[in-house]
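Hello,

I think I submitted the zinc ion job twice by accident. Can you confirm which output corresponds to this input? Input:
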Amino acid sequence: MGRIPKWRRVASIPEVTYFKPAGIPARILEEVCLSVEEAEAIRLKDLEGLEQEECAQRMNISRPTFHRVLESARNKLADALLNGKAIRIEGGNFEMVMRPFRCINGHEWDVPFETMIAMPPRFCPTCNTPNILPIQPLGLGWGRRGWRRH
Ligand SMILES: [Zn+2]
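Support: Only one job matched these inputs. Its output is below.
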């Protein structure tokens, strides 16, 4: 095991995670990759218009770290817009404000960020089975209501 990562707290994940400029052939299309916490930084600062101090608190990071994440995000967006690159939003080092869990018997419940970091759940609170899984936010079938059935 490496060092324990410092989780950033994220309240929402964008529904659309890929943007592509019109009229550029795929073979020459370049892509910038925005992490989920970079998207969250933009959302809090530029969309909700919060002060940096409050943004940092909401994401559970220091103000200098928030500033760095925000600058990186803005830089990538500017690069994509002005140089005609696609934007992909994925990955990163984050935990949801509320992370939904599901057990093998189909019970679902929400675990708050603070609990998730301090002591992740090991049993279903309804039926006590240890066969539980966090409903994954990205790349593993995340949909608006959680985990998508195929
Ligand atoms: Zn259960």
